[in-house]
## 1
Amino acid sequence: MRRDPDTLLPPDGRADARAESRATGERDPYLTQLGERIRSLRAARGMSRKDLARGADVSERYLANLETGTGNASVLLLRQVAGALDVPLPVVLAEVDGHATGHGNPGAAEFSQLVQWLAQLPASDLARVREAAQHALSPAESRDARHRRIALIGLRGAGKSTIGRALAAAEGIPFVELNAAIEQEAGASLSEIHSLYGQAAYRRYEMRALERVLREHDTMVLATPGSLVSEPATFNLLLSRCLTVWVRTSPEEHMARVVAQGDMRPMEGNREAMTDLRRILQARTPLYSRADVSIDTSGQDAASSLQALQTQLRQLPH
């Protein structure tokens, strides 16, 4: 017999609370959290709402509703089903590839068990599991080999290119801009890649370009795009093969430097540009923090920043 979705929940009053919430027009806490998660993921990737809507083939209005916690209530029904099955929602939602035919999919079964186990671990253990998995799937090179490649990460306007060129010149090693390598890989400009092929294609070119420059350069200083850290496979490859440096500054200096370079795009038609920038930085900070070294260029000229970076690099254990 078909059961009403609310009856899938234990009789602890939550179904009544949800019904009352819907009746009074209050936002469901789960949909609000889901919207915040989508907005955070979008910010980490540096995508505008228009870009994401186009890539997902949904309207901007639908995406706006989803991000503000007023999206499709069917997500709540899926969550209720997951609760009744006593599994985390990702187990229900995930698309897992498998080589089995018929009803048995060992890939899906393994994924289900893994997610349920991870969901029970504290944050400190999750970090250890991530590091172990990263090492197993993409073994790091020796410390000496990694330290011969220095990769700069951080938001646009932090000073990656300026400091990177200066460091490469001081050390007598090549300086590589990954953005240029991506354009070479695709045979198109970055804007053309995004407009013609979309975000997924850009990520593929980014990974191929990184793999190529790593093959071609045993020693280099590499400046990377700000959003690279939001693509796990690409970022893990960078971490395993390079010594990484987070070049950071204040949101105000990020914006001022980009505009000073003649790029007015952050400000055009966007009165909330600074709010968006702060949101992007907040979303990416846990990722940037995985770098081996961090330098703050706020209020510093290029020479001072270079000196500070060289001092930190000399102090690293060999």
## 2
Amino acid sequence: MLKSLYLFTALLILTGVISCQQEPATPLQIVEELNAVDSFKTINGDTAFQVTYELWFQQPVDHNNPDLGTFPQKVIYSHKGFDKPVVIVLEGYALYGTGQSELCRLLDANQITIEHRFFDESRPNDSIPWSNLTVANAAADQHNVIQAFKPWYSKKWISTGISKGGQTTIFHRSLYPKDVDVSVPYVAPLNFSATDERVQLFLDTVGTAPCRQKIHDFQVELLERKDVLMPFFEEEAKENDWEFKMGLDSAYDLAVFEFSFALWQWVPNDCESIPPLDATNKEIFHYWKTYTGFSFFEQNSIAPTLPFFFQGMTEIGMYGYDADEFKGYTDMEGMVDFSWTLPKGYENAEFNPEVMRKVDRWVKNEGDNMLYLYGGQDAWSATAAEPGPETNAVRLFNPEKNHSTRIRNYPDHLKDSIYSVLEKWTGVEIGVGE
């Protein structure tokens, strides 16, 4: 009889009816038991957490080819309680800061933040094996981290990210839909080409016609004054020790093209702040410099974000500039892309549209418990994800807001809707005094 009881108990354990996993005494025990963690240290994080650790996970360079070795990936693990949900923050770039995300505060949750592969020090031997920088590999990285912590936390899991981190959130969820219960991507584009033309259509229709005309006229003025403004541009380059791979002349034109996108992305656009066309050269140049950012085209300045551009040109898409809009003012023609950012040996890399098409099919047909948040005037919302009626997904645009859109700056009635959706999906009651 006793032997039969032992066999029955063993069967229950094997089938998962009884768990042999014990709740750890401290988060430190979790860290010490994670085989994939190469090293860790305690860091001073947000005081809302009981403890915060910086971990270095060993990840395969290529999840389909373990023989290529591993690389270290930075993860920040912040614990509040085993009886609370877990917010997974998926960075699209390097990992900056250790504080609470907006969702972590709202849901009073634990938080795990994952740096994206091949940014900052999360790369093999300070070099980047570009062919392994894929959406699939990045999602597998995140899956490994989540699964490592999953046994210890039984409450709801929520993934989130902002901008490219929002894209990363969508990509990961489409490939590993059961890793988390809810996903909240912020201002996350879903582009279908290296120069998605929907962005140009957006710039041609956003806001008011007078505002758009004022922006266009300012760009034309910059090109008409190129001879007198170029010395200012050259001085900026000299003072900052900038190097433009495409040359100063082309860099100037690209910065003019970028002006409209940058303005709609970041500046509340009533267009009243744009200088009149009879403003002085210094006034014109200063405004352009303030709201465009010339270093966006400078090779040393963009070095830390080259993985973003590589992904944009190969899998996740980007936007381009319609140079024909300024015909007669520039030597460039057609749709100008960001191919100048591609690393040596990959100059002829081609965009694979099927990667994003596959994500789009999932978004439309299977993407449940997805809360997409966008700024109504953000240029990146031109290519917002479009969930289909087969899902319960919710997409909300924040009127007259841009890439800085967060839950806290939505109008009250929309903010209440967001709270209701989150409460329904997570089971966590959200207080009004966040």
## 3
Amino acid sequence: MSGQYFFMKLIPPRPTFAQDITAEERAVMQQHVNYVGEAFNKGTVLIYGPVMATAGAFGMAVLEMPDAAAVQRFGEEDPSVKAGLNTFEFCPMRVAQARSKT
């Protein structure tokens, strides 16, 4: 795929989310993991996962998509966002250097 790169941040509902996630929230987050995993397998998500920041964990992904509108749609279709659990923000990214996949 040839596109632009974007950094996406998935913002949880509270700083303690990783420590006190409920069973209902865990089920929604499993849907989120499946959704992002499908995009990873398609090659539009290059890397993703939780960031264990001292102020509270959050999700991150580096995406390769045609434009910001595609990223916006991707974020809005995330099951955790659709459920009102998480929010997201993103910004364009310039890749200075990346390791080869080989």
